[in-house]
Design brief:
The protein is an all-alpha fold and 21 residues long. Helix content is 81%, strand content 0%. The protein is rod-shaped and about 30 Å long.
């Protein structure tokens, strides 16, 4: 699961950025 952490973080950031726009 630790390996997926960075991937999940990237996805969350992308989602947040998309919402901001």
């Amino acid at each position: 699961m630790s390996t997926l952490m960075p991937f999940v973080l990237s996805l969350k950031t992308a989602c947040l950025e998309a919402q901001d726009r």
